[in-house]
Amino acid sequence: MLKLVLDCGLKLERYVTLDRDEVKPKALGLMTPVLAVEGLIRSAIEMRDPTARGMSYAFVARLDTGEAV
Amino acid sequence: MMPVPEAALAEDRYAFVRDYLARLPAAPGESVLFDVGAGALPMREHVEKAGYAWFGFDLHPKSPEVVEWDINTRFEGDQRADVVLLMDVIEHTYNPGLAMENIVRVLKPGGRIIMTMPNPKWSRARTMHMYSGFLACFTQHDLDVNHHVFTT
Question: Is the pLDDT of residue B41 over 60?
Fold first, then answer.
């Protein structure tokens, strides 16, 4: 998506991830061990890749040239 | 190379856009915002409070204040926008490159787009993919019912 934005002559001003959630299980139950393992995997992924931290992401981009595509 | 996000925020897209617009200088009576995919108009009040004239567009308008526009086609009006808002819209388009070109055509010089999208690189999406074969937000249900056809 970023490539499409830049190819249109826009300059990226902001890029953030949104809806970051808690990777730890919220309550104890039968699924707790599974969720705990999933939480560990997610934590490892997020530590290695900051783009993984959030269900959504947002761009703000600006048209610098004044010329439309 | 994909840049690193400057922040990982707990807030949702509505809060992010509301806060961003509140800090973005607007010239009341002059600044125009196109809300593409306006839906049930959740952002109109925030946009107008920030000093922008709000214009709503949607492929299937549900309000008389919203104008029909398929962003895979060129905008037919003369109005141009200081800001175009695309909140979880682009992943519904069959040709996102064409849609982006049509969006950029309606921007004033120096105009901005604010876009939000589902994140296929979300850690939950990746673990879900391991056991289901689908990324979160891009399941068969999302394709059939929500019409999510694109992301990256």
Answer: yes
